[in-house]
Amino acid sequence: MMILKTIQKALRKYDEVVFTQDFIRIDEEELRILFVGKYFRFQNHESMIDLTLFSKNITWQDNSSTTSPHMTLIHEFSREIGHDGFELLICPELYQIKIKSFNRRGFNYAIKLLSQMIMKQNDSFFIPVLKVKHTPSFSLRGVIEGFYGTPWTHEMRLDCIKWISHERMNTYMYAPKDDDYQRKLWREPYPSSELDRFQELITLADTVQVDFWYMISPGNDINILNKEDLKELENKLQQLIDLGVTRFGLLMDDIDYTLSVPMRKKFSSNADMHAYLINYVYDFLVEQIPQVELVACPTEYDNHMDSYYLMHLTKMVNQNVPFFWTGPSTLARQISESNIKEMSQVYEREMIIWDNVPVNDFEADNELLFLSPYKNRSQALGDKAYQVKGIVLNPMPQWELSKFTVASSAQYMWQTSTFDAVRDFYDVYDLWTNEEEIKHSLDIFCSHFKNRHIEPVRWIDIELAIERGETKVLGRLLEELREVIEKIKTIENNQFQLEISPWIERIKLECELWNTLINEEDSRTKMIVASLEEMTYRVGSNIPLTYYNTHFLNEIEIGN
User: Which helix (H) or strand (E) holds 112?
Assistant: First the structure.
């Protein structure tokens, strides 16, 4: 029964599954699999398969092996299969496993699934008889490091690239707003030390089948009438081209797009000026890299309607250049089918959704953590009619904690049709623990750190309990939260603990405030309130302070 449940759970997230609950059984201590590569010449298992995914009791063979295999794995190319898709067939008559894919990533996804399918119990192997066919809902799926604030460390970026590959995402975009060389000092060449770091990121991305994109933001002060400015932009891009980058972004977001008097002599509108620059960059890149990819971010990137700017921009920019769109607002609470239908008609080209979740760089959001599931995004975003090439999430500076929402989005982008934000979010906790008690603790913890831009920070029962002064209900919630943080502190992940620790300390002080409120220790209460208000970290649910401000603030002030 355990084998069957494990198989059924692993098969839950695929487009087409035929599983009759029949198994191939091999009563051996060792399972020998012959690999036959028909995808490219001289293909072999050592160059194609991550052998660490499989048990040490599985031995891979090629045609030179002298012992007979128990099964044969054949890999074939298929031009009919879509982006990153695959077909996996396990045939009992021939003791054969066949994988078809269009690209290497599709094969890798099939291999990862196969590694979950081969079950060993006692002295026998059990391999299910099945057919799985799947194409991810979006061809581009990933992360854009595009927030304001302290950029990630090099180690965080390396971890991001490895991790998103593991989560079946395929894109990392480099666009930190406060990398001076990317935005403020875009004219300045990268020093050799920075280029060395880029090279390490690019090499890793190639190794794990992740597409590396470099974004540049010259729009604040570039003078496109000045040939020297254009040449400096070319030189900057050439630095990345020389490292092997073939995917770029030109970002015109968050800039003043008023035409200066000199610009008015050449351009009829800001859209005309921006189109000129986008096309100029695209033409330059195509000369260097015929198969280059370029994405552009318009200055109007969060529209929910048509505009003069977008109408003219999309008419003038080369159709091979997709546009970014954040949804109907910069921090979109929802993206509905009507939203995407409207903007697909406005853009009239492929778009990439730059989704500003779970980013916390707006106003005082940097004092908060956003640990919500990926919510309120229509399944219709994956409809080919709307030309959504893909989605990239803009995370928090706290990369390890950003994984909650990013992993949830990976589930959505893999298969929108069966995605359930709340149900599937529980699977995300597997990233940090296998213990059910700690998973439950993480679930409670996350419920106190909801993303205020996509859902209320407190569920309705808490709002009513605060309003009605139900101290027993609120006390139980806070005692539960205090117990939860002790369990979370046992998670063996140094980066996780480093990022979460300031909010752990905040929770402890909030629990102390609650005790002073209940025990009517007015002077101590005022001291703790003052300390909490000075802290630069906040809990989203904010129960004790909200209760204090609702029921005690005026009373304590009058009493003193």
Answer: helix 104-117
Q: What is the pLDDT of residues 335-388, one digit of tens each?
A: 999 999 999 999 999 999 999 999 999 999 999 999 999 999 999 999 999 999
Sign of CA dihedral 113, 73, 62, 82: negative
CB-based contact 173:249 (threshold 8 Å): yes
Tallying the residues shown for the chain, one arrives at: 560
Tell whether domain 2-134 is in CATH 3.50.50.60: no
Query: Integer distance in angstroms from the first to the last C-alpha of the chain?
Result: 67
Structure tokens at 189: 């060449």
Output DSSP code: residue 392. E
The structure tokens listed for 229 are 């400015």
**Level-2 CATH architecture, domain 140-419:** Alpha-Beta Barrel (3.20)
Any idea what DSSP says for residue 377?
B
Q: Burial level of 56, CB count in 10 A (0-12/13-18/19+)?
A: exposed
Say how far apart CA 473 and CA 375 lie, in whole Å: 28
DSSP annotation string for 510-553: HHHHHHHHHTT-HHHHHHHHHHHHH-S---SS-HHHHHHHHHTH
Residue type, 332: A
Q: What is the pLDDT of residues 519-560, one digit of tens each?
A: 989 899 999 999 999 999 999 999 999 999 999 876 544 444
Q: Which two tokens stand for residue 389?
A: 């090439």
How many angstroms separate the CA atoms of 209 and 164, rounded? 10
Active centre residues (catalytic): 254
Q: Is 473 in a helix, a strand, or coil?
A: helix
Token couple for 178: 């406060």
- C-beta separation of 26 from 125 below 8 A: yes
- What residues does each domain of the chain span? 2-134, 140-419, 460-559
The structure tokens listed for 291 are 């198969």
